[in-house]
Amino acid sequence: MVMAFLSLLPAVGAAVVWFPVALYLLATGALLKGIVLIAFGAGVIGLVDNVLRPYLVGKDTRMPDYVVLISTLGGIAIFGLNGFVVGPLIAAMFIAVWGIASRRNASPRAETDS
Prior knowledge:
Layout: H1 2-6, H2 15-27, H3 31-57, H4 65-79, H5 83-106
Helix pairs in contact: 2-3, 4-5
C-alpha cells in the first residue's frame, strides 16, 4: 500500500520502498532474495512505473497521477473490472466540465439595461 502511494512520485517513488527492503535482505544474509528483489524492482517495477504507465494512462490526459490512481481504484471498486476505464473517464469528464464552467463564470458578462 505504501508503494502504491509513493509510486505517485515520478521516477523514484516505488524504489523508495523496494530498494531499502532489498538492501535489508542483502545485509541479513538473504542474498538470493535481495538480488531477486533488486532485479525484479529494477526490471519489472521500474519498467511499469516509468515506461508503461505513460502509455497505459496516456500522456495527454493532463490529469495528475494521484487523480488517475484514485479514480482507477474507485472505478474498480464501484464498476468492477470496467472501472479500470470508467473511473478515469468520469474523472476526466468532471475536470473538463469544471474547467468549462470556471471559464464561463470568469468571463465578463455584458449587462444590459432593461
